[in-house]
Write the structure tokens for this entry.
Amino acid sequence: MRATDAAYAVLKTQGQPMDVQDLLDETLTRLGLDREPKVAARIYTDINLDSRFQHRGGSSWGLKEWQPRTTGRTTSSRDRSGYEDDDGDDLEEDDG
């Protein structure tokens, strides 16, 4: 099992965001690995790069799928200030 899949399973089982240290401990336990700094750092890096995970502020991580999806959107994804909306889409502003 890949480390990110184990971390995903840990969060899925927990059902709520977790402190990254607790997430790493649980992930390492599932993988049957000892907590070595290089291994923990590699797993943390992999979590950062995996689009299934979402940093929730501080040291808390959760799953991106837990975020509510917005529907029925009728406006451009950019507001008049030119900033992108939360979903990261960078669409051109409507002229009319």
